[in-house]
Amino acid sequence: MQYNKVLEKNIEDIKSIVKDDDRIFYGKNINEDYSHDELGFVRKLPELVIKVSTTEEVSSIMKYAYQNNIPVTARGSGTGLVGACVPLKGGIIIDLSGMNNILELDEENLTLTVEPGVLLMEISKFVQDNDLFYPPDPGEKTATIGGNISTNAGGMRAVKYGVTRDYVRGLEVVTPKGEILNLGGKVVKNSSGYSIKDLIIGSEGTLGIITKATLKLLPLPKKAISLLVPFKELETAIETVPKIIKSKAVPTAIEFMQGEVILAAEEYLGKKFPDHSSDAYLLLTFDGNSKEEIEKNYEKVADICLKEGAIDVFISDTEERQEAIWSARGAFLEAIKSSTTEMDEVDVVVPRNKVAGFVKFTHKLQKEYEIRIKSFGHAGDGNLHIYILKDDLSEEEWQTKLNNVMKRMYDEAKELSGQVSGEHGIGYAKREYLSDSLSDENIEIMRGIKAVFDPKNILNPGKVCY
Fold first, then answer.
1. What is the pLDDT of residues 323-343, one digit of tens each?
2. CATH level 2 (architecture), domain 340-440
3. Across-strand partners of 349?
4. pTM over 0.85
5. CA-CA distance, 450 to 180, in Å (whole number)?
6. CATH topology of domain 102-219
């Protein structure tokens, strides 16, 4: 596709649509942050940035861009890790972060309707203040809900509650041609034709731009307790997880972590972790409406852990203890990032009973390629977060080792019946690995869907399957 550049005439036309010059940026007035997301190394500045405030503005801009063959990329907080909001072809960035209003709390239908720029942490606080609960809990709390929906973000509570897709009841979406679609709604059940809503969720802004979302809520669990369980070896810890799941005492979260990552988090936060007796830990949380209900579940799990070789089981039943543990877990990514010059990440997902084998494989790669590899992850749902660190390697050495290690990891994930991404998405950075992991027919079906929504391929081009 031959795209057109944004010319002075186009900027003037856009000004007549937006009618507020303070929300339009071009040339030297574009902040460098718009050229990248948290991944960092995929960079391209847009030619024009528009901070939109209404669905109608998004619709009018898309109609104009479609007619004039100008590529458009939607963006929220820019906290992604695969380059999904980087405008690879230049063109226009539609910044949705200013559409950040909570529109309606419907306590009869247990739904919350929001604009796409509302932050995850704002949703969490708002519903908790109303004694309600939005379960999806991705690590980056400053991400926007539009970005969460676009990547089908998961997080630590996925073991018990599922992922973002399970909590999206309805969407308002602007298509690449500028039409406004209303998908789903407040209904609990819906078998009315193809689920276009579910195609939009996880499509990383390639099929449409989300301008409103209706989210499913739950009653707020009244109590939560965490268990910190040290093991002699990480493999033993992770191999215990399928036995915990099989026991039917389903925790809210099951995380695995290693001593070296905990030490990095301690240094980064300037806080001490509650225990240093081991190099391998499981961290579990249980929630419910009574202490008795939670105790029944965690006691069963504690017994399983001790029987499988746990050194001890520490119960964190106060807010202070919980905060000490979970703040360290929440800081893992930033702590690892601050310890190196550059890094890239893999967020493969494998069957739960294959997690231990995959982690062991990463240890083997670390020795074989003489490169630092750090990992932690959601042991309860098989989603691993693995970080390859550049440190003092030369650029040439780094690229060679990184490409080799990445390829080996994705090949191993495929061998274990896993998938390329559990929650961060494909974006630009993981396209090659997605193509390698899926059949040609599968990729062609994805491209066919994209072509139906976006015949000119102007919306977020170069991502996912293109």
1. 888 888 888 888 898 999 999
2. 2-Layer Sandwich (3.30)
3. 383, 419
4. yes
5. 17
6. 3.30.465
